Amino acid sequence: MAENKAQNKAASPVSPVYDSLIVGAGISGLAAAIKLRKEGYTDFKIIEKASQVGGTWRENTYPGCGCDVPSSLYSYSFALSSKWSRLFAKQPEILAYLKEVSDDFGITPLIEFNTDLEQARWDDSRDLWVLNTSKGEYLARTVVFATGPITESQIPSLPGLETFKGEMFHSAKWNHDYDLTGKRVAVIGTGASAIQFVPEIQPRVKELFVFQRTAPWVLPKPDLPLSETSKSVIERLPAIQHGWRKAVAGSLNVINFGLRNPNVLKPVSSAARQLLRLQVDDPVLRKAVTPDFTLGCKRILFANNYYPALQAENTSLIPHGLVEVDGNTVIAANGERHEVDVIIWGTGFDVSHPPIGRKVFNAKGERLSDLWKDSSPEAYLGAALADVPNAFLVLGPNVLVYDSFIVLAEAQLDYIIDGLKKIRDRGISRLTIRPSVIEQHNQKVQKHLKGTVFNSGGCKSYYLDQNGRNFAAWPWSLKALKKRLSRFRLKDYEVVYQQQKANRKAA
User: Fold this and answer.
1) Interatomic CA distance for residues 53 and 99, integer angstroms
2) Cα 132 to Cα 123: distance, rounded to the nearest angstrom
3) Residues contacting 339, CB < 8 A, separation 6+
4) What is the band of 180 on the pLDDT scale with cuts at 50, 70, 90?
5) Of 146, 153, 59, which Cα lies nearest the Cα of 111?
6) What architecture is domain 14-152+351-506?
7) Cα separation, 49 vs 55, whole angstroms
8) Matching Gene3D superfamilies, A to Z (predicted)?
């Protein structure tokens, strides 16, 4: 019997211990992998729940889906592309770009596809992360959580929703098998996704009812197609790409300055209101789509075809939220009722409670989502979480600047990978952000956010959690953020070296 037990124990598989594991193969995860390889890392893997790379650009396939940051900046600094067909790329091109980058840099073979993270726990006895996945257990000395902030689609719970007998889906889970031609469609929400897909579906549907709880600022989009000649010139002359990228970054820095100093935006708001007079003829509709808050308080949207779609004969803007569903009747807050065949939710994402929190447990054994349930998450420089050793979050709380997510991710990853290198090269067994450092950092962030347009612009946005705390924005410039992320300071962390732990065990 003892011999059989010994044989079974010897035959049981032993999980390899990786230097690092990256969770997610979207824009952040791919950048993390490429930067790790550049620093000489070979012993790491990416685990990805889906069957291909892409993150949000893989998941969101609704009609008209595209980026509101110019392609020159919404691309990696180390992988500029001359293939963009427009100044602002659409979803299929961005997804193709991410796939190409993954292949070109040799990252695709390092990805464990169809591997969904179920739980991540810190094992203090071994100084290791134990990641339980849909394909078994993974062990790693360090982890980079690159799951992104825009992942959990949000559908409100409304009275009578279960009685609806028609078709219903969220824009992030678009049902391409369902033909909208000739249907009566209710679109709930007027955020970034809705202003892109509403103009695409409007010509096909019989009636379109757009439920608008809050009118957004929608500015003209300076988008143009790029001819084959233009692309050829850009390819032959990389200086054009770099100059284009620099010019876009400069213009976004100007917007960021305005967001930090709301008085600067007042003339822009006035000009935008005057522009609405040219864009929307009907004074009643114009009044309904005119925002009642300072430009920039909510996300600024860009589109050239949204207002024309709202003025089409088959479109009705309902300047109220949806409050109830009665069978196939949708009911607005003002009591207005409409029979529809389809409900499309353009209600965004739950960004204040990142879904990764449900799967990660800190060193005390506490589930992060339980700690965040009555508030929103806090981090140090959006990367280091309290009581979560040897692990970092990409695009975490309070690093949002009006810029490209790719630019932000790259800046943050320079900091994170500097930390990973210190853990590896200096024989560190455990590294955790000091409580005093994270507390002081977040107190300062919240203090300086008070004067920004996000907090003082007179709106309720996804930047603010249920308590009115701004968990998303960075209150200073992108330059200041990059400077803070340029160097990983060990003194900000509680550090236990491998030799120290070995000496304790020996004692």
Assistant:
1) 6
2) 12
3) 184, 328, 329
4) very high
5) 146
6) 3-Layer(bba) Sandwich (3.50)
7) 10
8) FAD/NAD(P)-binding domain (3.50.50.60)
Q: Which residues of 73-87 are buried (b: 16+ CB within 10 A; e: fewer)?
A: bbbbeebbbbebeeb
Claim: this prediction has a pTM higher than 0.85: yes
R_g of the chain computed on alpha carbons:
25
Contact (CB, 8 A) for 190 and 317: no
Q: For 2-59, what is each residue's pLDDT tens digit?
A: 444 444 444 346 789 999 999 999 999 999 999 999 999 999 999 999 999 999 999 9
- Residues 291, 273, 89, 397, CA torsion sign: negative
Q: Can you name the residues that pair with 431 across neighbouring β-strands?
A: 495
Domain ranges of the chain: 14-152+351-506, 161-225+230-345
Rounded CA separation 399/404 (Å) = 12
Are 477 and 400 a contacting pair, CB within 8 Å?
Answer: no
Residue 12: burial class (beta carbons within 10 Å; 0-12, 13-18, 19+): exposed
Residue 18 burial (10 A CB sphere; 0-12, 13-18, 19+): buried
Q: Judge contact between 461 and 402, C-beta under 8 A.
A: no
**Structure tokens, 186:** 């209710």
Asked whether 430 and 127 are in contact (CB, 8 A), the reply is yes
For the record, the structure tokens of 340 come out as 């529809």
Give the whole-angstrom CA distance, residue 476 versus residue 445: 9
Distance set, CA 353 to CA 47, 400, 481 (Å): 22, 16, 23
Instruction: Indicate the class that CATH gives domain 161-225+230-345.
Output: alpha beta
